[in-house]
Every structure is written in structure tokens, then in C-alpha cells.
Design brief:
membrane, 9 strands, binds 2-acetamido-2-deoxy-beta-D-glucopyranose, 306 residues, Rossmann fold
Length: 306
Amino acid sequence: MMIVDLDYTRRYLSLQINDVICWWWYYIKEISWQLLIALLAYLCVCIFLYALLKRVDHTAWQLPGPPDRLLLVTAHPDDEVMFFGPLVYWLTRSKVTKVYLLCLSMGTCPTDDLSWCPGSVLAGGDKRRIDELWASAKILGIPEANITIIISSELPDDQTVQWPIDEVAESILQYIEIYKINAVVTFDKHGVSRHRNHISLYFAIAALCIEKKVPPYCKLYVLESVNIIRKYIQLLDLPISLLSAPYWYLVTREQKHTIKKAMAAHKSQYVWFRKLYMVFSRYTFINTLQEVSALDLELDLQFDED
Ligand SMILES: *[C@@H]1O[C@H](CO)[C@@H](O)[C@H](O)[C@H]1NC(C)=O
């Protein structure tokens, strides 16, 4: 009697387990099928948007004005092409906007191989990086005369170093006043790659804004940082970018060649991982910008205090 019972229970249990497995299997199949369809639909939206935007004029979504004189503030030679490529591409081709570039350090050369850096070694950098910046900017369409490089031992090229905000802010303000700049563009508070040098530039313009030192004719904009997944999906980020930002610049695959060539001009920097970056990064196709306003900054500060 007991033996039959045990047998029955075992059979009953295995049937139940089978049932559960079957059900899960069906469920997973169904879900992955739906995920696949969603993914394909998203892909179609991306292709459609790209094809559409290639044909239509999208200057309406670029910086308003458009600004007469624009100052791009970067931390290292090569930031202007690695992160701001599409913006610079369109600005230098616009008939209206005059572009100026302020780069706050010379960057460093690879130190393990000094043969990379012949010529005179200057404070925390090398002349070679300056030559590369000029060559690169020329390809992008910014003449040497419109580029200012600040060489200061206070501003080292270092991931971990936050630059003195006052000094950076003062340099930017001087530039705005001398050149009567209408729009300043720089990094946002995440600095795209969380590089402390990049973030210092944001803090500097935020300080100018909060202290109300920015002249009324000048507006401040920052380049949006995105999460790591969005950062490396190239054009697949297009729909999200268009929805999330008021101002954007987009280049086509053909126009991107110019940006890639400009990056290649930074010879000492153009190593394998930056080559990969140039292939996969969304920043070589899309730049999205936000305006900085004193109100937003104050809310942000309050939020940080809470
Ligand atoms: C560079 O600056 C000059 C003088 O301000 C200006 O005329 C020119 O348009 C600028 N170049 C670009 C590409 O914006």
C-alpha cells in the first residue's frame, strides 16, 4: 500500500514540475519574441529618423539665434573633436556664426615613450599637442587665429584633479568680454567621461552664472552627458537624443569622415581605444545641448544640500 502511494506521489510531483517548466518555457519564448519585435521596431525608427533628417534642414533645432560669436571651451586638445565634433562641423560651415576655441591645457603626451614628444617640453605638456590641435582644427574649419590655448601649471591634465574654479572662470569671462561672445559651450556636470578637468569647466561657468557675472548678451550651453550604454550605440541613440534635448547637432556618415580625419590629426592620441571610440561613440554623430540658467543651478544646489 505504502509503495503504491510513494509511486503515485512521485508521478504527481514530476507532472507538476513538468507543468511549471512548460509554462515558463512558453512564457520566456513569448517574451523574447516580443522583445525581438520591439527591438526591430526601434531599429526601424532609427533608420527612418536618420534617413529623414539627412534630407531635411534641421537648423531649427540648433542653437537659437544662431549666435553671432560662439566660444567653445575645452579642457584638452582633442576634446573639440572627440566630444564636440558635430557641433563644430556645423558651426564652421554656418555663414552666421564665428567660432572661437579656448583650450585650457596642452594635455600630456604618452610619457612611457618620449620619442612621441620631440621638441620643447613645456609645463605639463608638449608643443606637439599644440601642433596637433592646430592641424585638427584646420580640418574642422577653425583657423589658428581663433584658437587660444592656456598653458598653466595650475591646470594639469589629470583625471583626478579639479582645476581652480576662480582661475578658470576668470579666463572664460575675459574671453567673453574681449570677443563679445554670444554663446559659450562647454561640458556639463558629468563631463561626458566624468573627467575632473572637464567638470571644472562646468563649475566655472556655473559660478559665473550664479554670481551674475555673465554679460546679458551672452548665453551658456552645456553638452549633455549620457549613460554608458547610450554613449556607445552611435546612431541608435538618435530617437532618445531628439526627445531629451532642446538643441542638437547631427552629422551624416559622410560628414563624419571629416570628424574622423580631424581626430586622426591628433597623432599622439590616436591609439586603438580612441579609434574604437570614434567608431562607436554617439558623440561623433550627435551633440545635444542644454541651456544653463541661474534658476536651474539654484534648484540643483538646493537639491544637493538636501
Ligand atoms: C575666426 O575669427 C575671425 C575674426 O573674428 C572671424 O572673421 C572668422 O569667421 C572666424 N572663423 C570661423 C571659422 O568662425
